[in-house]
Amino acid sequence: MALTGTYVPSSAEWVRNQVAEYEASDGERAGTLPGTKYPIVVITSVGSSSGNLRKNPVMRVERDGAYLAVASKGGAPEDPAWADNFRKHPEVELQDKAEKHVYRVRELSGDERADWWQLAVETWSTYASYQEKTDRQIPLFLLERA
């Protein structure tokens, strides 16, 4: 079932612009994060406090139909706000190019986390430097079709 509610765009201009371009072109334009050549997906989640819909572009890390959302925030000392959204409301909508589906979210740990972390770093090596910049363990969220 698709998420319902009021969409409130990000306060960050680059996020707003990225999401708008991606959705307007079904992922054909602006299909990468600024300054990279790596593909992205857009994830819609329910705000943990507001209950409003939030949309975030994240690096496309996919295996066998499951997607990984890496809560790196560029190696900042705190998690991105969407990590709390996932924890409180573990149902999201993911758009990969023109395809949109609902996914269940779970936070990874242990060997499963290590396996997906390896894929994340193989997909975009900058994740490793983000981990080096922060004392927190970067959360990994697995998104599986609902």
Automatic annotation (TrEMBL):
InterPro entries: F420H2_quin_Rdtase, Split_barrel_FMN-bd. It holds the Pfam family F420H2_quin_red. It catalyses: oxidized coenzyme F420-(gamma-L-Glu)(n) + a quinol + H(+) = reduced coenzyme F420-(gamma-L-Glu)(n) + a quinone. Belongs to the F420H(2)-dependent quinone reductase family. NCBIfam families: hi_GC_TIGR00026. This is Nitroreductase family deazaflavin-dependent oxidoreductase.
